[in-house]
Amino acid sequence: MTSLDSVLVFDKDGVRLTVEDAVATVTLTNPAKRNAQSPALWRALTEAGRSLPGSVRVVVLRGEGKSFSAGLDRQAFTPEGFDGEPSFLDLARGSDEDLDAVIAEYQEAFTWWRRSDIVSIAAVQGHAIGAGFQLALACDLRVVAEDVQFAMRETSLGLVPDLTGTHPLVSLVGYARALEICATGRFVHAQEAERIGLANIAVPGDELDAAVRDLSAALLGAPRDAVIETKALLQGAAGRSYEDQRTAERAAQARRLRDLAGLGD
Predict the structure, then answer these.
(1) How far apart, in whole angstroms, are the C-alpha atoms of residue 110 and residue 143?
(2) 3-state secondary structure of 45
(3) Alpha carbon of 87 to those of 30, 91, 164, 175: distances in Å?
(4) Among 19, 170, 177, 205, which one has the highest count of C-beta atoms within 10 angstroms of its own C-beta?
(5) For 10-48, how does the pLDDT look when each residue is reduced to its tens digit (9 = 90+)?
(6) Which residue numbers are catalytic?
């Protein structure tokens, strides 16, 4: 998903951000560890969101190598943790307020993907486990390779999914199936992922990049403001009554018509 025309914005802590015209690509760059995640990587992902030029309309998230992301680096649970970082065991000994603040900071890496001014696409191959699954769920859309293996393993380890994945998972597949996926920790493969709504498209692995390029181009085909308004309408629909959604549609359409007529603010 990069080309000679791509502009490198930054490359550090296992995350690379490049921009080509209206498409940004965020790449996880530690294939030797199956793109396992760490607090440093989460901070880099947060920085990627803050570094997007205003011209970007589509953000593609991908992982180098055979796996999208195998989840949290288990080094986090060792007494020594990561260099320069408190171990998760040390964090657990802190106050509730401190622990809440740390987890909230980690979550920031997973929240910006649904900003109204962009559409985000996760290109997922191989393992997408735990934090990797939640990172894919953070995006608006998911295009998966036929070898994809989604799994939410936190519950099996005595933990809960806490990196913003529970809300989109329930929204996509419903409460009962989300509970079953999380409580069992089982794998969800490409065919099932597409059938139950986790994946928008499933393709052979060698077609993954091309499928993402085609989807990106299709998204860029509509006027930006119309996509932004439509995304906001759809994001808010679940929290509105039918009548409230009708009202929101009318207000959004009025804004679009005024803009098209040159009567906007």
Answers:
(1) 18
(2) helix
(3) 21, 6, 21, 33
(4) 19
(5) 999 999 999 999 999 999 999 999 999 999 999 999 999
(6) 154
Query: Which tokens belong to 190?
Result: 């490409």
The span from the CA of 69 to the CA of 92, in Å, is 25
Residue 263 per-residue DSSP state: -
Structure tokens at 91: 């964090």
Tell me the H-state helices in the chain: 39-50, 88-92, 96-111, 131-138, 166-173, 175-184, 190-196, 208-220, 224-237, 242-260
3-state SS, 9-43, equals EEEECCEEEEEECCEEEEEECCHHHCCCECHHHHH
SS3 61: strand
Residue 257 has pLDDT above 80, yes or no: yes
Tokens representing residue 33 in the block: 């560890």
> Does pTM surpass 0.70?
yes
Which of 156, 168, 158, 42 lies closest to 110 in space, CA to CA? 42
Three-state SS at 148: coil
8 A C-beta contact, residue 103 and residue 110:
no
Answer whether 235's CB lies under 8 Å from 229's CB: no
